[in-house]
Specification:
alpha/beta, binds adenosine-5'-triphosphate, single chain, globular, 9 helices, 4-stranded antiparallel β-sheet
Length: 236
Amino acid sequence: MSELTISDLKVGYKKNEVIHGLNLHVGSGERVALLGANGAGKSTVLKTISGLLTPSEGSIQFNGDEIGGISPAGIVDLGIVHVPEGRRVFPALNVEDNLKVANYRKGPESLAEGFEAAYAAFPILEERRKQPAGLLSGGQQQMLSLARAIIAKPKFLLIDEMSLGLAPLLVKEFYQTLDSLFSSEISLLLVEQNAGMALAHCSRFYVIRNGDLVLEGNSEDYRDDPTKLQPAYLGQ
Ligand code: ATP
Protein backbone atom coordinates (compact mmCIF):
# COMPACT_ATOMS: atom_id res chain seq x y z
CA MET A 1 0.00 0.00 0.00
CA SER A 2 1.28 3.49 -0.75
CA GLU A 3 -1.32 6.21 -0.70
CA LEU A 4 -0.84 9.88 -0.08
CA THR A 5 -3.40 12.39 1.14
CA ILE A 6 -2.69 16.09 1.35
CA SER A 7 -5.23 18.17 3.28
CA ASP A 8 -5.46 21.95 3.54
CA LEU A 9 -1.72 22.27 2.95
CA LYS A 10 -0.14 25.69 3.32
CA VAL A 11 3.55 26.10 2.66
CA GLY A 12 6.03 28.59 1.25
CA TYR A 13 9.41 30.19 1.70
CA LYS A 14 9.87 32.22 4.89
CA LYS A 15 6.94 34.62 4.98
CA ASN A 16 6.03 34.10 1.32
CA GLU A 17 3.17 31.59 1.28
CA VAL A 18 3.11 29.76 -2.08
CA ILE A 19 0.51 27.00 -1.54
CA HIS A 20 -2.67 28.31 0.05
CA GLY A 21 -4.61 25.26 1.23
CA LEU A 22 -4.15 22.34 -1.16
CA ASN A 23 -6.15 19.09 -1.10
CA LEU A 24 -4.80 16.24 -3.20
CA HIS A 25 -4.94 12.46 -3.14
CA VAL A 26 -2.91 9.75 -4.82
CA GLY A 27 -4.29 6.26 -4.32
CA SER A 28 -2.18 3.14 -4.01
CA GLY A 29 -0.65 2.38 -7.43
CA GLU A 30 -2.27 5.42 -8.97
CA ARG A 31 -0.49 7.77 -11.39
CA VAL A 32 -1.47 11.38 -10.95
CA ALA A 33 -0.22 14.51 -12.71
CA LEU A 34 0.22 17.87 -11.03
CA LEU A 35 -0.03 20.53 -13.71
CA GLY A 36 0.11 24.29 -13.94
CA ALA A 37 2.02 27.22 -15.43
CA ASN A 38 5.53 28.30 -14.44
CA GLY A 39 5.64 29.39 -10.84
CA ALA A 40 2.23 27.93 -9.93
CA GLY A 41 3.78 26.03 -7.02
CA LYS A 42 4.13 22.49 -8.36
CA SER A 43 7.76 21.96 -7.30
CA THR A 44 6.95 23.47 -3.92
CA VAL A 45 4.36 20.73 -3.35
CA LEU A 46 6.86 17.98 -4.24
CA LYS A 47 9.55 19.55 -2.05
CA THR A 48 7.14 19.59 0.86
CA ILE A 49 6.21 15.93 0.44
CA SER A 50 9.88 14.96 0.27
CA GLY A 51 10.71 16.83 3.47
CA LEU A 52 12.71 19.72 2.00
CA LEU A 53 10.06 22.19 3.16
CA THR A 54 7.91 22.09 6.28
CA PRO A 55 4.17 22.77 6.02
CA SER A 56 2.99 25.84 7.91
CA GLU A 57 -0.53 24.38 8.09
CA GLY A 58 -2.43 21.27 7.05
CA SER A 59 -1.39 17.67 6.82
CA ILE A 60 0.37 15.18 4.57
CA GLN A 61 -0.52 11.58 5.30
CA PHE A 62 1.24 8.55 3.86
CA ASN A 63 -0.70 5.33 4.43
CA GLY A 64 -2.58 7.09 7.20
CA ASP A 65 0.50 8.40 9.07
CA GLU A 66 1.35 12.08 9.28
CA ILE A 67 4.64 12.77 7.46
CA GLY A 68 4.62 16.58 7.14
CA GLY A 69 7.92 17.93 8.51
CA ILE A 70 9.80 14.60 8.57
CA SER A 71 13.43 14.95 7.37
CA PRO A 72 14.26 14.11 3.73
CA ALA A 73 16.20 11.01 4.86
CA GLY A 74 13.21 9.86 6.90
CA ILE A 75 10.93 10.32 3.90
CA VAL A 76 13.25 8.21 1.70
CA ASP A 77 13.21 5.51 4.38
CA LEU A 78 9.42 5.40 4.03
CA GLY A 79 9.89 4.61 0.34
CA ILE A 80 9.03 8.05 -1.05
CA VAL A 81 11.63 9.03 -3.64
CA HIS A 82 11.91 12.45 -5.31
CA VAL A 83 13.44 12.91 -8.75
CA PRO A 84 13.97 16.67 -8.69
CA GLU A 85 13.79 19.17 -11.53
CA GLY A 86 17.05 20.07 -13.21
CA ARG A 87 18.62 16.65 -12.68
CA ARG A 88 20.63 17.73 -9.62
CA VAL A 89 23.58 15.45 -10.20
CA PHE A 90 26.92 16.10 -8.50
CA PRO A 91 28.93 17.29 -11.53
CA ALA A 92 32.40 16.54 -10.11
CA LEU A 93 31.54 13.01 -8.96
CA ASN A 94 31.59 10.19 -11.43
CA VAL A 95 28.42 8.34 -12.42
CA GLU A 96 28.98 5.44 -10.05
CA ASP A 97 29.65 7.70 -7.07
CA ASN A 98 26.55 9.76 -7.86
CA LEU A 99 24.52 6.57 -7.62
CA LYS A 100 26.24 5.49 -4.41
CA VAL A 101 25.92 8.86 -2.66
CA ALA A 102 22.20 8.99 -3.34
CA ASN A 103 21.74 5.53 -1.85
CA TYR A 104 24.30 5.58 0.96
CA ARG A 105 21.88 4.01 3.42
CA LYS A 106 21.48 0.84 1.37
CA GLY A 107 23.36 -2.36 2.27
CA PRO A 108 25.93 -3.78 -0.20
CA GLU A 109 23.64 -6.51 -1.50
CA SER A 110 20.70 -4.27 -2.19
CA LEU A 111 23.06 -1.69 -3.71
CA ALA A 112 24.56 -4.28 -6.08
CA GLU A 113 21.08 -5.39 -7.10
CA GLY A 114 20.09 -1.77 -7.67
CA PHE A 115 23.14 -1.07 -9.82
CA GLU A 116 22.34 -4.08 -11.95
CA ALA A 117 18.78 -2.87 -12.54
CA ALA A 118 19.89 0.71 -13.21
CA TYR A 119 22.59 -0.28 -15.68
CA ALA A 120 20.24 -2.70 -17.43
CA ALA A 121 17.82 0.20 -17.93
CA PHE A 122 20.52 2.65 -19.06
CA PRO A 123 23.56 0.78 -20.47
CA ILE A 124 25.24 4.06 -21.44
CA LEU A 125 25.59 4.87 -17.73
CA GLU A 126 27.57 1.70 -17.18
CA GLU A 127 29.86 2.63 -20.07
CA ARG A 128 30.37 6.06 -18.53
CA ARG A 129 30.47 4.97 -14.90
CA LYS A 130 33.93 6.47 -14.28
CA GLN A 131 33.15 9.78 -15.99
CA PRO A 132 32.24 12.93 -14.06
CA ALA A 133 28.48 13.42 -14.21
CA GLY A 134 29.02 17.04 -15.28
CA LEU A 135 30.35 15.79 -18.62
CA LEU A 136 27.19 13.83 -19.44
CA SER A 137 24.61 15.18 -21.88
CA GLY A 138 21.32 16.55 -20.49
CA GLY A 139 19.53 13.33 -21.43
CA GLN A 140 22.19 11.20 -19.76
CA GLN A 141 21.98 13.31 -16.60
CA GLN A 142 18.24 12.68 -16.58
CA MET A 143 18.98 8.96 -16.92
CA LEU A 144 21.29 9.26 -13.91
CA SER A 145 18.50 10.91 -11.90
CA LEU A 146 16.13 8.08 -12.78
CA ALA A 147 18.83 5.48 -12.10
CA ARG A 148 19.17 6.85 -8.55
CA ALA A 149 15.44 6.36 -8.11
CA ILE A 150 15.61 2.80 -9.50
CA ILE A 151 18.27 1.88 -6.94
CA ALA A 152 16.21 3.42 -4.15
CA LYS A 153 13.35 0.98 -4.92
CA PRO A 154 10.53 3.44 -4.27
CA LYS A 155 7.00 2.71 -3.19
CA PHE A 156 5.99 6.22 -4.15
CA LEU A 157 7.71 8.30 -6.81
CA LEU A 158 7.69 12.09 -7.11
CA ILE A 159 8.99 13.20 -10.50
CA ASP A 160 9.54 16.85 -11.36
CA GLU A 161 9.69 18.00 -14.99
CA MET A 162 11.30 14.97 -16.51
CA SER A 163 10.98 16.35 -20.03
CA LEU A 164 12.42 19.79 -19.40
CA GLY A 165 14.94 20.78 -22.07
CA LEU A 166 15.04 17.36 -23.71
CA ALA A 167 14.37 16.47 -27.35
CA PRO A 168 10.85 15.08 -27.94
CA LEU A 169 12.13 11.66 -28.98
CA LEU A 170 14.13 11.33 -25.79
CA VAL A 171 11.15 12.45 -23.71
CA LYS A 172 9.08 9.70 -25.26
CA GLU A 173 11.79 7.17 -24.45
CA PHE A 174 11.93 8.31 -20.82
CA TYR A 175 8.21 7.88 -20.40
CA GLN A 176 8.36 4.41 -21.92
CA THR A 177 11.18 3.58 -19.54
CA LEU A 178 9.14 4.89 -16.66
CA ASP A 179 6.23 2.65 -17.64
CA SER A 180 8.38 -0.43 -18.01
CA LEU A 181 10.68 0.08 -15.02
CA PHE A 182 8.35 1.01 -12.28
CA SER A 183 5.61 -1.53 -11.78
CA SER A 184 2.00 -0.51 -11.57
CA GLU A 185 2.12 -0.98 -7.78
CA ILE A 186 4.28 2.10 -7.43
CA SER A 187 2.29 5.27 -6.96
CA LEU A 188 3.38 8.30 -8.92
CA LEU A 189 2.89 12.03 -8.56
CA LEU A 190 4.24 13.66 -11.69
CA VAL A 191 4.90 17.35 -12.26
CA GLU A 192 5.02 18.27 -15.94
CA GLN A 193 4.93 21.30 -18.23
CA ASN A 194 4.17 18.91 -21.08
CA ALA A 195 0.47 18.34 -20.34
CA GLY A 196 -0.03 15.97 -23.28
CA MET A 197 2.70 13.66 -22.04
CA ALA A 198 1.45 13.80 -18.45
CA LEU A 199 -2.15 13.03 -19.46
CA ALA A 200 -0.97 10.10 -21.57
CA HIS A 201 0.78 8.49 -18.61
CA CYS A 202 -1.43 9.43 -15.66
CA SER A 203 -5.04 8.49 -15.01
CA ARG A 204 -5.96 11.68 -13.11
CA PHE A 205 -4.65 15.23 -12.86
CA TYR A 206 -4.76 18.38 -10.76
CA VAL A 207 -4.11 21.88 -12.08
CA ILE A 208 -2.87 24.55 -9.69
CA ARG A 209 -2.60 28.27 -10.36
CA ASN A 210 -0.87 30.70 -8.02
CA GLY A 211 -0.89 28.06 -5.30
CA ASP A 212 -4.60 27.27 -5.55
CA LEU A 213 -6.24 24.17 -6.94
CA VAL A 214 -8.30 25.27 -9.96
CA LEU A 215 -9.19 22.00 -11.69
CA GLU A 216 -9.03 18.27 -11.16
CA GLY A 217 -10.21 15.51 -13.45
CA ASN A 218 -9.73 12.30 -15.34
CA SER A 219 -7.01 12.37 -17.97
CA GLU A 220 -9.12 10.51 -20.52
CA ASP A 221 -11.47 13.48 -20.77
CA TYR A 222 -8.61 15.70 -21.97
CA ARG A 223 -6.23 13.37 -23.82
CA ASP A 224 -7.71 14.11 -27.24
CA ASP A 225 -7.10 17.83 -26.74
CA PRO A 226 -4.82 18.89 -23.85
CA THR A 227 -5.22 22.54 -24.90
CA LYS A 228 -8.63 22.38 -23.17
CA LEU A 229 -6.62 22.75 -19.97
CA GLN A 230 -5.22 26.12 -20.96
CA PRO A 231 -7.98 28.26 -19.43
CA ALA A 232 -7.32 26.56 -16.08
CA TYR A 233 -3.57 27.19 -16.40
CA LEU A 234 -4.01 30.80 -17.34
CA GLY A 235 -7.12 31.76 -15.39
CA GLN A 236 -9.18 32.74 -18.43
P1 ATP B 1 8.37 25.89 -12.33
O1 ATP B 1 7.88 24.97 -13.35
O2 ATP B 1 8.77 27.21 -12.87
O3 ATP B 1 9.34 25.31 -11.37
P2 ATP B 1 6.42 25.56 -10.26
O4 ATP B 1 4.96 25.47 -10.48
O5 ATP B 1 7.14 24.31 -9.93
O6 ATP B 1 7.06 26.25 -11.50
P3 ATP B 1 7.56 26.57 -7.83
O7 ATP B 1 8.97 26.29 -8.25
O8 ATP B 1 6.92 25.70 -6.83
O9 ATP B 1 6.63 26.62 -9.13
O10 ATP B 1 7.49 28.10 -7.36
C1 ATP B 1 6.32 28.68 -6.83
C2 ATP B 1 6.65 30.06 -6.29
O11 ATP B 1 7.58 29.92 -5.21
C3 ATP B 1 7.27 30.98 -7.31
O12 ATP B 1 6.70 32.25 -7.13
C4 ATP B 1 8.73 31.00 -6.93
O13 ATP B 1 9.30 32.24 -7.21
C5 ATP B 1 8.70 30.76 -5.43
N1 ATP B 1 9.92 30.05 -5.00
C6 ATP B 1 10.35 28.87 -5.48
N2 ATP B 1 11.51 28.50 -4.86
C7 ATP B 1 11.79 29.46 -3.97
C8 ATP B 1 12.83 29.66 -3.00
N3 ATP B 1 13.82 28.77 -2.85
N4 ATP B 1 12.80 30.79 -2.25
C9 ATP B 1 11.80 31.70 -2.41
N5 ATP B 1 10.77 31.56 -3.28
C10 ATP B 1 10.77 30.48 -4.06
